[in-house]
Design brief:
Elements (H helix, E strand, L loop, with lengths): L2 H21 L3 H31 L3 H9 L1 H18 L9 H17 L4 E8 L2 E8 L6 H13 L5 H25 L1 H12 L2 H7 L5 H20 L3 H15 L9 H15 L6 H4 L1 H4 L1 H7 L1 H4 L21 H12 L10 H20 L9 H21 L18 H15 L3 H25 L1 H4 L2 H15 L6 E4 L3 H5 L3 E4 H6 L1 H9 L6 E10 L4 E4 L9 E10 L4 E11 L12 H11 L2
Parallel strand pairs: 3-4, 3-5
Antiparallel strand pairs: 1-2, 1-4, 5-6, 5-8, 7-8
């Protein structure tokens, strides 16, 4: 196949993918298509990626083993172990960003059980079989839920498998950061890049949770590494593996699709560098493999509420230049904050920001000599374009950059800070005396700041939503073995704990069925979860969620526990529904009765 034909074919495939991605389907149909194909698309993409990596790097296994056995390999192992121990020494494992992580865990459960990317609003039991219904598609990309579903397939379903996956993968982030730093500037550069990132409190906080941030970080540094290896030897196998890693990274987080830009630029540079166009089959099909991401994006057109703009005062659009000035100030405030309540690293921010700027200026001033730089420096230069695009996107976002919910999105921005800081201070600076001074400063910083901040965990203890659901987990453990059906705004929480559950909106629509169900023999208790906040104006604890049961439901207290001075969690039992009469029914046999029973389940 000639080069011209491959270029023409790639152009046609790209146009075809753009048409089917953006124009062929109505938004609702695109989302439903995504629901059905997401699992198989991700399985295919990861399978092709693993195959391509095998083709590209299995012949170099002896060199890889030699690296593992070298001083650098031993240092990588030690640094990874030390950094991992620091990350998890004080941060307890558990769901951190509650709704996000519960929804992704629910998607993973559906991928495991039915191979569909969907979340049920209702789970009931009929003759000992769990039955789910009223599905919706979550807006979050599918890479992390897919990997969790694979873990479910291998080990059986466990509620905390998303957390266990992050515990398994997070050390690999530190390992790959060491390799990138060591290849750029030597062992000490690798050590400092990995350890500076490991001592970031925000990393510890997210790595001990069940969110998609660790998977996203891992795929960023893996794509960076594969891009460097492709620049070093731009053959078909390496370029193909790199391109597929970029496709997978695009489906790790919404924003990570921006890294398609540096991936594409690096592939173009590989062509220019080798004076030939390298277009293997793995690159040709990349536009097709990105279709699920585009179809999922239509969910924001189908339901604009997915942008959650109602939660942001004064927001009229999700992104806009009007947010940039304010968010830039908030970003600097976050990076340079010196209080314990913010999970930043002042040392990493100061050193990292200055060194990223220094590195960028140095590369720009030497752009004529760019071809003579090492592939590791070249790859870092290209990746900085992706990180800059990510920063621009975040400061253009309607949500405040320093919001406790949003700051986790800044995690990838700390990666170039760590690498640039280590490279500039331990490679560009040649003085051994300066190296020792900075190593001493870093040691003092860890002892005087990083240890106490991560031990106090003030930034984590302020996560009240997570604390409320920890109380809900305490309730489930306390009442283990006692069957019940739970009505809650966040019904997915109970779904991932394999408890029968019903969304509040659905409960309000099924009042007659609930009335009939309560009159049936052996009906399960209906327990309504309430998150309460004290209102000093009324001297009462008031319901704080966005949706609530209608007034027709008659409730009685069942369980209550205080979270702090102004918050508590309560479970109320539904005992009646006023204004509705029980519908009479007579059954001649058990089968007829069970059909009636099933219809009355809330």
């Amino acid at each position: 196949m000639t080069t011209r034909f491959r270029l023409l074919l790639f152009t046609l495939i790209t146009l075809f993918a753009l048409y089917f991605g953006f124009f062929y389907f109505e938004p609702r149909d695109a989302v439903l298509t995504y629901k059905s194909v997401a699992y198989w698309s991700m399985a295919l993409t990861l399978g092709l990626f693993i195959h391509q990596c095998y083709r590209a790097y299995w012949p170099a296994r002896q060199r890889l083993w030699a690296y593992v056995c070298s001083h650098a390999g031993v240092a990588a192992l030690i640094v990874t172990v030390v950094g991992t121990l620091f990350m998890y020494r004080a941060e307890p494992i558990g769901f951190k960003t509650v709704m996000d992580e519960h929804l992704m865990a629910s998607t993973a459960k559906s991928l495991h059980e039915s191979r569909t990317a969907s979340v049920p609003r209702r789970m009931v039991q009929i003759q000992n079989a769990d039955v789910t219904s009223h599905f919706f598609v979550d807006k979050r990309p599918v890479l992390q839920p897919f990997l969790v579903s694979v873990l479910h397939d291998l080990t059986g379903f466990r509620t905390y498998n998303s957390i266990y996956l992050n515990l398994l993968l997070s050390p690999l982030i530190l390992l790959l950061l060491f390799v990138i730093g060591e290849r750029m500037g030597g062992i000490f550069t690798g050590i400092m890049a990995s350890l500076m990132f490991a001592t970031l409190p925000l990393l510890s906080f997210m790595a001990a949770g069940g969110g998609m941030e660790p998977v996203n970080l891992l795929w960023i540094v893996l794509t960076w590494l594969l891009g460097t290896l492709a620049l070093a030897r731009p053959d078909a196998e390496r370029v193909g593996a790199f391109a597929l890693s970029g496709v997978i990274l695009a489906q790790a987080r919404y924003e990570s699709v921006l890294f398609i830009l540096p991936v594409g630029l690096m592939i173009l540079y590989c062509w220019w560098k080798s004076r030939r166009v390298v277009l293997p089959w793995s690159v040709l099909i990349c536009p097709f493999l990105l279709l699920p991401y585009v179809w999922l994006y239509h969910i924001f057109q189908h339901s604009e509420a997915m942008w959650q703009l109602a939660d942001v005062d004064g927001a009229t659009s999700a992104f806009g230049t009007q947010y940039i000035v304010d968010n830039l100030g908030r970003a600097l405030g976050f990076f340079l904050d010196t209080t314990n309540g913010v999970p930043n690293s002042l040392l990493l921010s100061v050193v990292g920001i200055l060194c990223v700027l220094l590195f960028s200026v140095k590369v720009l001033l030497r752009w004529r000599e760019f071809n003579g730089l090492t592939p590791w420096v070249q790859a870092f230069s290209f990746m900085l374009i992706g990180f800059a695009a990510l920063l621009l996107l975040l400061v253009s976002y309607a949500w405040h950059f320093d919001s406790p919910i949003i700051v986790r999105l800044s995690l990838p921005l700390h990666i170039p800070m760590a690498v640039a800081g280590a490279y500039c201070l331990f490679s560009l600076v040649k003085s051994r005396y300066a190296h020792r001074v900075f190593a001493l400063i870093f040691g003092v910083y860890v002892a005087m700041y990083a240890f106490p901040v991560t031990s106090n965990r003030e930034y984590s203890l302020r996560n009240l939503a997570a604390a409320e659901f920890e109380l809900a987990e305490d309730f489930l453990e306390e009442y283990e073995g006692k069957p019940a059906m739970f009505i809650a705004e966040n019904s997915t929480f109970f779904y991932i704990f394999d408890r029968h559950s019903l969304n509040i909106i659905l409960a309000n629509k099924r009042k007659q069925a609930i009335k009939n169900y309560l009159a049936l023999p052996n009906s399960l208790p209906l327990l309504y979860m309430q998150r309460l906040v004290y209102n000093p104006a009324t001297d009462e604890f008031e319901y704080s969620s966005k949706t609530w049961l209608d007034e027709e439901f008659v409730l009685e207290p069942y369980w209550e526990k205080q979270l702090n001075e102004v918050r508590k969690l309560r479970f109320m039992r539904v005992v009646d529904v006023e204004g509705y009469e029980v519908e009479e029914f007579e059954a001649d046999n058990v089968d007829a009765f069970m059909q009636h029973w099933a219809k009355q389940i809330p």
